[in-house]
Amino acid sequence: MQSLLLIRYGEIALKGKNRPFFEKKLLKNIKEALRGLEPFNVIFQRGRYFVKISPQDNYAAIQKLQKVFGIVSISPVLAVPLEMEAICRQALLLLQEQYGRPGLTFKVATRRANKRFPHTSPEVNRIVGEILLNSGLETKVDVHNPDIVINIEIREKEAYLFCRSLPGSGGLPVGVTGRGLLLLSGGIDSPVAGWMALKRGVKIEVLHFHSPPYTGEGAINKVLELCRVLTAYGGKINLHLAPFGEIQQQIRRHCPEPLLITLMRRAMFRLAERLAQQRELGVIYTGESLGQVASQTLENLTVINSVVTMPVLRPLIGFDKEEITARAREIGTYAVSIRPFEDCCTLFVPPHPVTRPDSAILEAAEEKIPLDELVNRSLDNLETRIIANTPGGEP
Ligand code: ATP
Ligand code: MG
Predict the structure, then answer these.
(1) Whether residue 1 has pLDDT greater than 60
(2) Which residue has the CA at smallest separation from atom 10 of ligand 1?
(3) Residue 99: pLDDT above 80?
(4) What CATH number does domain 179-387 carry, 3.10.50.30, 3.40.50.620, 3.30.365.10, 3.40.50.720?
(5) What distance in angstroms lies between residue 67's CA and the mean position of ligand 1's atoms?
(6) Alpha helix segments (H runs only) across the chain
C-alpha cells in the first residue's frame, strides 16, 4: 500500500501566463526535497500535486514538504476503491480519528471528477453523512461552520478521502524570481536573511569570508552547517569561501582604527559584487538591520553601499533582534549560529568605530592599500563547495 499526500499551492496560482513556469519549478523543488525518501511519485493534476510515498516515510515527507516554499498546505489522503461501501468505511475511520468531543460538527464535501461514478456528489454527501450520523458517535452536521470537513474526491481509478490540512511555508517556489548572492557570516542574522530571500523565490549562492589562521575550521563548519539547514528550504547551495585575512591585515596596518569595520565591509561588498557578476547573480543579500551595531548606522550603510552598483537587499532592515532571533529559532538556524566560533569581523573590532563616516576620508584611506589587487587575489583563491540537501551533507 502507498500513502498519498495532497499538496496545495497559493500565490503561484495568481501568476497568469507564468503559471506553468511556477508549477514546473515547484514540482522540481518538491522532488528535490523528497530525495532520499525513494521510491516516491509526484503527479500534477488540476492545480494540485499528489505525492505517492511508502507509508513509513509519510511523516518525514510531510516535514520536508512543509519547508518547500510555494506550498500552502498538505493533506494526508486515503485512497480507496471506487465503491460506496469502501468510501463509507474510510469516512467513518476518519471521523473516529478526529472525534475529540461529543457534539462535534462535520460536513461531507464530495467532488466527482469521474462522471461515470453512479452517484452524484450530493448523493455521496448524503449517503456518507447518514452513515456518520448513525455511527454511535455523538455528532451533528453543520454545512456552514463545521469542526471538520470530510473531503471525498471521486477520481478515475480511486476515491480519495482527507480531512486534515497541515500548513506549508507559503511564499514562492525557489528559483522563480531570480538568483542572488547571500553574504553569510556565522551570526544569527544573515541565515535568516537567506531564508527570507528563498521565501520570495530567489535561488541563492552563498559567500563567506574567513581569515585563516585567525579563524579556524570551527568557523567554516558552522557556515557549512548553516547552509545545510538552508538547503531544506532552497535545495542545493553553492558556498564560496573567500580568504579575507590579507585584506584585513593591510587595512589594519595602514588605515585609521575607527574606520576598520567600515573599510572591511566596503572591501567585502566590492568582492561580493565581482563574484556575483561572475556567477550571474543579480542581487546581493545581507543580514544587516538598521542601528543594530555601529557599522549599521544609516551613514555607514550608505558609504558601504556606495562602492557597488548592484542592488543590495537587506530583508531584516526593519526587524528587532528579538524578532530575528525568534525567526532563527523557528527555521532551525539559531542553535548553529550561537556556537562559539570567531567570525573574521569580530576579530578586529575597534573600540570606537566611526558611526558617521566621511566618504572622502574613506577613499583616502583606501588609497594607501592595493585594494583592487587584494580583492582579485582573494577571488583567485576562492574555494567553492556544493552543499547538498541530504542528511549526510556534502555530495
Ligand atoms: P550576522 O548576525 O549576520 O553576523 P551582524 O548583526 O553580526 O550580522 P555584521 O557583523 O555587521 O552584523 O554583518 C552584517 C552583515 O554582513 C551580515 O549579516 C552578513 O550578511 C555580512 N557579513 C558579516 N561578516 C561576514 C563574513 N565573515 N562573511 C560573509 N558575510 C559577512
Ligand atoms: Mg556578525
Answers:
(1) no
(2) 345
(3) yes
(4) 3.40.50.620
(5) 25
(6) 19-34, 58-65, 84-98, 121-133, 189-199, 217-234, 245-254, 260-278, 298-305, 321-331, 334-337, 344-347, 359-366, 371-380
